[in-house]
Design goal:
The protein has 260 residues and is an alpha/beta fold. It contains seven helices and eleven strands. The chain has helices at residues 66-73, 97-106, 123-133, 138-151, 167-179, 197-213, 225-228, and strands at residues 10-12, 22-33, 40-51, 55-59, 81-86, 89-91, 108-111, 185-189, 217-222, 233-238, 241-242. Strands 7-8-9-4-10-11 form a six-stranded mixed β-sheet, with helices on both faces. Strands 1-6-5-2-3 form a five-stranded antiparallel β-sheet, with helices on one face. α3 (123-133) crosses α4, α4 crosses α5 (167-179) and α5 packs parallel to α6. The longest helix is centred in the C-terminal third of the chain and has 17 residues, at 197-213. The protein is globular and about 50 Å long. The protein starts with 9 loop residues before the first strand and ends in an 18-residue tail after the last strand. 45% of the residues are buried.
């Protein structure tokens, strides 16, 4: 992954002992929407360290702040206070817009709950979009996109428009798009939330395989405890605070079990 331009938006942090092993870190993140009596604190003191190669799940019910946290980590939103660090350097979210866009494009891959594909574009064109946005020529970008579609099992659907694909296929296209730039960190926001049980497990198992084969560091926000239990660590988000202790996820509960 090219990091020269992406890291223009960061400044060195003092870091704690062993910080070189931490890929991404959040310190005392706070996010408040609105002002005065109309204010709503979504995150009040979120702390998180993601180490290289980890697959970590955050479990919490809808509306608890999972999406907000992921948006802050990806520099898609700005914290009210607190700092996000990538590769032991602080992301300056008020810095140069072009450099921030470079960080988003190269350092992190973001997987949305609702795939956010362009329905009139082909699967290959959708996957190629992040490469085109950073200046790659169309032929090269489309070739790379086709390779990723083959990796997620959709080689034969590359020239189909996104609107012609099933929900499970669309999410696989979205996975390929999130990873086509070769990011270090994958941030997945309820990646199986809109899928039926069979497709949810298939997509999650695909994410696990890609996580291993591409040496990713992954953070998955979910309310499905059975899926979370398959991750290396499970954290809870309660009252705006990200729990640093491991949250117990029952692998024996019924399929589709949710956090509450």
């Amino acid at each position: 992954m090219a990091q020269d331009n992406a890291t223009q938006v960061v400044r060195s942090s003092s870091g704690a002992e062993g910080a070189a092993r931490v890929v991404m870190e959040a310190r005392s993140l706070k996010k408040v929407y609105g002002r005065g009596q109309q204010s709503l604190a979504v995150l009040s003191d979120a702390n998180l360290s993601l180490r290289h190669g980890e697959m970590v799940a955050i479990v919490a019910p809808s509306g608890a702040g999972k999406s907000t946290l992921l948006h802050l980590l990806a520099a898609l939103d700005t914290p009210t206070s607190g700092t996000v660090y990538f590769a032991d350097k602080a992301i300056e979210t008020n810095d140069d817009d072009a450099a921030l866009a470079e960080f988003r494009n190269r350092a992190v891959g973001f997987l949305w709950q609702r795939h956010q594909l362009l329905p009139d574009f082909t699967a290959a064109e959708n996957v190629a979009m992040p490469l085109l946005l950073r200046g790659e020529n169309f032929t090269s970008a489309l070739g790379t996109a086709r390779k990723w579609l083959a990796e997620v099992g959709l080689e034969d659907r590359a020239d189909h428009r996104a609107g012609e694909l099933s929900g499970g296929e669309q999410q696989r296209v979205a996975i390929a798009r999130a990873l086509v730039t070769g990011p270090t960190v994958l941030l997945a926001d309820e990646p199986t939330g809109d899928l039926d049980e069979q497709n949810a497990w298939a997509v999650f198992e695909l994410l696990q395989r890609l996580h291993r084969t591409h040496g990713l560091t992954s953070l998955i926000a979910t309310h499905n405890l059975r899926l979370a239990a398959r991750c290396d660590r499970v954290l809870g988000l309660e009252h705006g605070v990200l729990q640093t202790r491991e949250a117990r996820a029952s692998a024996s509960m019924a399929p589709g079990g949710e956090a509450s």
